[in-house]
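Weekly sync notes, structure subgroup
Attendees: PM, AL, DS (notes)

Item 1: joint prediction request from the bench team. They want all two components modeled as one assembly rather than separately. Inputs as received:
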Amino acid sequence: MNSVGASASTGAAAGGARTREDVVLAASRLFAKRGYHGTSMRDLGEELGMLGSSIYSHVRGKNELLVEVIGRGAAFFNGVVAEAKRSEGTAVDRLQQMVSGHVHVVIGHIDESRTFLFESRFLPEADRQKIIEMRDAYEKAYRETIRDGIDEGSLAAGVDPGITAIFILSVLNALIRWYRPSGDRDADQIAAEMWSFIAGGIVVGEPDG
Amino acid sequence: MNSVGASASTGAAAGGARTREDVVLAASRLFAKRGYHGTSMRDLGEELGMLGSSIYSHVRGKNELLVEVIGRGAAFFNGVVAEAKRSEGTAVDRLQQMVSGHVHVVIGHIDESRTFLFESRFLPEADRQKIIEMRDAYEKAYRETIRDGIDEGSLAAGVDPGITAIFILSVLNALIRWYRPSGDRDADQIAAEMWSFIAGGIVVGEPDG
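Output from the run, pasted for the record:
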């Protein structure tokens, strides 16, 4: 009941009591829609129904918001890989889990994903470097899981882990460009069709890899 | 011996006699490397060893060069699809031909491909519309060839032509982002590994599609 009390006491008509979390979520939406450079503190204020200047009681500036939104995006993607690593399944199971998890992050957290994928170049240099390292580690997790699958015999011996990781990530990374929430497929269906394409290909009777 | 004579009479130190073709090729290189907005007529002049103002004896402006370079890129990609349509092979043969042809265009004409893929948004509106239509037709050619393959029984019945065309084009379109001329694979090898991934997938014994 706390939030109801807070809302009543500050007045919803005046925008209610906006928290730092509200500011970060609004920044996610606007960065995803208009890009980092297309979003001003004034735009953020309008989105939140508060004065641009009051936002500074929550954050030091737009740059802090970019670091935070992209950090959240990175944490979602990292979480998928970490969970797959903890799983007891075969390498193929883990690979499927990683593909499906990526699809669910993009679709379930589309604003953070979009900002992470398209606006990272505008981060301060040290943060930008961390994101580059994180992306390298992400690709490495795919390479290693593919190598495990070849070793256990469930992935075709002719598969090259490096280029195959790139092919899989190409399919995954394109999702945010073509996915429309108004489309007729949900995340589960897209993940299933994507995995079917990656695992089995499309040609009848074609040898794997 | 003509070119030697021409070079001697105009003086190589002054840049020789530059043709319109030289200007277009230099524009391809610079647009690909620095982007359309990152390239000035002065940069072009330096690249060609001629005064920026003399370029105007060949072209009306930078915009005309963008239209021309992107038109060449589009023609290369369209040529691949047109050739596959004329071929007598099965739908699967034609699909493989389209994938391989795309890889060879990107690698063999990397400057025009990069400009086509990344700078089209800066075209004048009417030209931009034509490129959007061309891309739609390109995707449609993939959808139709996949549908033909399902009809002839060589592609798995469970394959959806629309989403599968998107998956294949995702793999193809990412090539220009990761390909390095200094890498250890040539266009034939990349095309073969890409086709193997698309046709057969990677999991041993996984049903197609």
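Discussion: Residues 125-152 of chain B form the longest helix (28 residues).
Action: AL to compare against the crosslinking data before next sync.
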